[in-house]
Amino acid sequence: MVKQRKEGKSPKSKARDDDASAPSTSGSDGGSGAADKSSAGGGTIGQKTSGIRNKQKRSELYHKLKHQKEKTKAKERRKKQKEAARAEELGLEPPPKPVQHTLENTREADDTMVDPTDEEIMADENDDEFAAHFANARPPKVLITTCYKPSKIMYTFLSELLEVLPCAEYYKRNGFPLKKIVKFAGNRDYTDLIVINEDRKQINGLLLVHLPDGPTAHFRLSNLKLGRDIKGHGRATNHKPELILNHFDTRLGHRLGRMFASLFPQDPQFRGRRVVTFHNQRDFIFVRHHRYIFEEKEKRDAKAKDGKKKKAVVARLQELGPRFTLKLLSLQKGTFDSKNGEFEWLPKKENKTSRRRFFL
């Protein structure tokens, strides 16, 4: 006998029907409840909208919140401008401008930060390897050489570098090992040795050896731009340049700054208006060569009612080149010794614990 099928539904199908007929708790818009919850909380705009699954709704809310934020910022900006204008009319000091937070002004405190007026630092400087230079007892005399097979771009860079360093001379490598060159330079009273390296016609390294007792600094050289490639560049004169050293604040940075200073004479000729800058920022040393120019230009006088122009002297900078960036790879005690040398500083991964920690 064939059993007749009973009418009605099984418990599982009934449960499915009940779930389908129940009202949705998340809302028919695909995430409006999550949107209300996200917009109510704090955090960035991305964090506020990250809980919405519907892409269209998420995008709409994102642009809405962004527009509100820009509107609030513009309102605050106009308010500050009005306060500054009112203070200027009354002859009062304008409200202070907010300080922008950067990696430089939020860097982690370092125990080796140098105070130039510290007696201990001054005593160390009077007894270090560069003391004779700063006492004008030993004028700078720099020997520059290259790797074994320099390319054409190397010679162009050398010609411009010789203009930057007025006390430098170039000697061809001629296949001599570096230790023999160090000995050769020391016997001829050179104070410093610079060796420039290149790989596949790309200049990528610079070795600086202070003679006769060191130290030896090895740098990675990058972002080289020759003077001929700089728009509106000038030609260097034979005057001795001024030297600017910026932000060499730690003991290591202070030592490097003195090492760079020993390459230049202590009596710059200000008539030439040449200046060489070593600017340290986030442990990258930016090297620039400029001439400052004074020009007489006509400027509109804001106080004059008839709009007359008056003559004023305006200063500007003209880059001479070359420009490049140095990154310290190692600092070694004494002169160059790749096998038995003792290093004062080497980069270590365990020391780089934060993006806001710098060594120079």
Automatic annotation (TrEMBL):
Gene Ontology CC annotation, any one: preribosome, large subunit precursor
UniProt cross-references to InterPro entries, sorted A to Z: Brix, IMP4/RPF1
Region Disordered, residue ranges: 1-107
Composition bias type Basic and acidic residues, residue spans: 1-19
Gene Ontology BP annotations: maturation of 5.8S rRNA; maturation of LSU-rRNA
Positions with biased composition (Basic residues): 64-81
Ranges annotated as spanning the membrane: none
Name of the molecule in the record: Brix domain-containing protein
Top-rank lineage group of the source organism: Eukaryota
Domain Brix, chain residue ranges per copy: 140-337
MF terms in GO: rRNA primary transcript binding
Any Pfam family matching the protein: Brix
PROSITE patterns named among the record's database cross-references: BRIX
